[in-house]
From TrEMBL:
Region feature (Disordered): 1-22
Keywords: Lyase
Protein name in the entry: S-adenosylmethionine decarboxylase
Highest taxon of the lineage: Bacteria
Organism of origin: Aquipuribacter nitratireducens
């Protein structure tokens, strides 16, 4: 009978500035900040979520993602792509020169949307949140990472 070796997982570290060696794995507990493995690369993440009064269409997702690019100053490399899940609703994605954004819209179990923005160029999160409110109504919640 063969024995399986455990995956090499390092314990979470509390050593400031610790960077694992290439090929090693580092699991960081939810209470700890994640080490910045590439401090020379700007990374900004934003999640926007909210309720809407009507199902969100592929056209509405494309229009939002296109306007989001202009609003936060991103250069579009690939126009928005959308796809519909027969169970839940539409999803969309846009590719920017400096990363991109994903959009998810649920029809079931409730009318709800979630936007994930990831950029390697600084942007104003409040501008993106205000745009989501204008496009889909309500008062979206948001968090930067």
């Amino acid at each position: 009978m063969s024995q399986q070796s455990a995956s090499p997982v390092l314990a979470p570290t509390t050593v400031p500035g610790h960077v694992p060696s290439p090929g090693s794995l580092l699991r960081v507990s939810p209470a700890e900040p994640m080490p910045d493995l590439a401090p020379m690369i700007h990374r900004q993440r934003l999640v926007i979520e909210g309720y809407c009064d009507a199902p969100i269409s592929a056209e509405a997702i494309s229009a939002f993602l296109t306007e989001l690019s202009d609003t936060i100053g991103m250069v579009t490399l690939v126009e928005p792509v959308t796809h519909k899940s027969p169970l839940y609703g539409w999803a969309g994605w846009i590719h920017w020169e400096t990363s991109g954004a994903h959009f998810y819209a649920w029809d079931q179990p409730l009318l709800f949307f979630s936007v994930d923005v990831y950029a390697c160029k600084p942007f104003q999160a409040r501008d993106a949140v205000a745009l989501a409110a204008r496009h889909f109504g309500g008062a979206p919640v948001w968090k930067e990472f």
